[in-house]
Design brief:
The chain has 243 residues and is mainly beta. Helices cover 0% and strands 55% of the residues. The protein has a single domain, classed as Jelly Rolls, CATH 2.60.120.10. The strands form 4 sheets. A 7-stranded mixed sheet has the order 1-20-17-22-15-13-14, with no helix packed on it. Belongs to the pirin family.
Length: 243
């Protein structure tokens, strides 16, 4: 088993008045050659946007972009004609593929929106752009890992063009669970939404992250009531990135 630990305070940070953003991996003006990605997991940004503000229209290609609100309301618009508002308990995914532009704004004038934006490299270039959102609260299971994303359209949660599985774990203090990986070439990244947990022997608190690979399973123990996001991804980057 191999591990990489990213404590919350070690992340890159950007403060623009209307935006407070923390970057687990290199992003924008934050660059650390040792923190470029975890396998095909390229970006984990924890963003807080003030009322009425947000990210204007901007383009993406060949990236799977996942948004998970933690509080407040996030308004999405894109060049495919989609428009929606998502809140805690929802997940949104956009496959950029051949190219798409989108904007993400705080849907409220006076309430902060707090959300995670996660980027995963697509399995292949040039897929048809698509958008999907759903409520993950509907299938919520206390003290279990609830699948919220997979590679399969007919499986639980949203789907993306990558062999990735995300789970939401709402765990009571003292609960112990084992996360079983789907593939031997995969790793799993744990991001703590709230509370304190012990993962693979490492104590983690809110906004800490731990990547684990070269293992078939990982032990997770809630040291307090806690919420954990697991992101299992291939550790090898797609070949098109090297062409």
């Amino acid at each position: 088993m191999k591990k990489v630990l990213h404590k919350a305070g070690s992340r890159g940070a950007a403060h623009h008045g209307w935006l407070k953003s923390f970057h687990t991996f290199s992003f924008a003006d934050y660059h650390d050659p040792k923190r470029m990605n975890f396998g095909v997991l390229r970006v984990i940004n924890e963003d807080r946007v003030t009322g009425g503000q947000g990210f204007g229209k901007h383009p993406h290609r060949d990236m799977e972009i996942i948004s998970i609100p933690l509080s407040g309301a996030l308004e999405h618009k894109d060049s495919m004609g989609n428009g929606s508002v998502i809140r805690r308990g929802d997940i949104q995914v956009m496959s950029a593929g051949t190219g798409v532009t989108h904007s993400e704004y705080n849907a409220s004038r006076d309430e902060l929106v707090h959300f995670l934006q996660i980027w995963v490299f697509s399995r292949r270039q040039g897929v048809t752009p698509r958008y999907q959102q759903m409520s993950i609260a509907d299938g919520a299971r206390k003290d279990e890992f609830q699948q919220i994303l997979s590679p399969n359209a007919d499986d639980a949660g949203v789907w993306i063009h990558q062999d990735a599985w995300f789970n939401w774990g709402d765990l009571s203090a003292g609960v112990e669970r084992s996360y079983q990986l789907h593939g031997s070439d995969n790793g799993v990244y744990f991001f703590v939404i709230s509370g304190q947990v012990e993962v693979a022997g490492e104590q983690l608190s809110s906004s800490d992250g731990l990547g684990v690979w070269e293992t078939k399973e990982v032990s997770v123990k809630a040291l307090s009531d806690a919420v954990v996001l697991t992101m299992e991804v291939p550790m090898h980057l797609p070949e098109y990135l090297f062409h």
